[in-house]
Amino acid sequence: MWRYYHPMSARSSTQIPHWRNRARAAAGLLLILLAGCAQLRVAPQGPAEAIKPHFDAVPGQDAATIAKLRAAPAPVEPEVSQGTTTAGDEQALIGRGYVRIGNGYDAAGGSRAREWAIEQGRSVGADKVLLYEPTPENALVAAYFVHYRLPFGARFRSLTADEERTLGAGGVQIGEVVRGTPAADANLQTGDFVLKFNGKAIANRAEFQQLLSDNVGKRVTLTINRGGVTMDRLVRLGALAASSTEAHK
What are the φ/ψ torsions at residue 51 (nearest 5 degrees)? Predict the structure, then answer.
């Protein structure tokens, strides 16, 4: 999975690999995710289960994690709309800071299927519920999204060996940058190479991730290389919802 506070894969920043959702439940975790083009799936079921509506949570997106990372309290009513394609809709919402927390399935359909899908959205605290056309397995498919607070707001990956030789240093390369996030406000751009964090050389993506996690809510200086030109960018990292005192600095 591509993650917004976690690294990209070692592929080119123009590609989108499959992503994994692994939220951590500590205030210093700094994840987010966000991101990738995971497909909605249908788990194998027995005959009795097949006709019963069910919610399939994304691994790691438990209630405590969602509460800690969401950008605002859960709405009284989620925004409900008709989806187009699961992958395309998810990618578009990722770019706006939304994370898919689960999927809903109703094999039987009928007049109450939509009501069930919306009620499930209220139950899990979804900000958005997208409804999709029937599939061979289900008469109704729904995807549930929550708007997350993104402490950094960009994907990143480790450098390749060739990139390290060219730059003469380790570091990470920035992938997609989400608008309205600290990374975007600092004018970080896709393709930038981040070489230093507060003047300290960065070895790889794991170290960069840890440095971000250790500096939640603080202003930090990133030394980047953009098109062969080295420059500094001041980034004010966001705070997680649990760190309310940091969030208002």
Answer: -100, 0
CA 4: distance to chain centroid?
5
pTM: 0.57
Q: Strand 79-82 and strand 128-132: pairing?
A: parallel
The candidate with the shortest Cα–Cα distance to 32, out of 214, 240, 198, is 240
Q: Could you tell me the CA-to-CA distances from 213 to 30, 39, 217 in Å, in that order?
A: 5, 29, 10
Fold of the domain built from segment(s) 154-247: Pdz3 Domain (2.30.42)
- Which pLDDT tens digit goes with each residue over 193-228? 999 999 999 999 999 989 998 998 899 999 999 999
**pLDDT value at residue 77:** 97
Strands (DSSP E) contained in the chain are 54-57, 79-82, 98-106, 128-132, 140-147, 154-158, 172-177, 193-197, 200-201, 219-226, 229-236
Please, where in the chain does CATH 2.30.42.10 lie? 154-247
Cβ atoms within 10 A of the Cβ of 217, count? Answer: 17
Residue 90, number of CB atoms within 10 A of its CB: 25
Extract the tokens encoding 41.
Answer: 């799936």
Task: Name residues whose C-beta falls within 8 Å of residue 65's C-beta, 6 or more positions apart in sequence.
Answer: 23, 24, 25
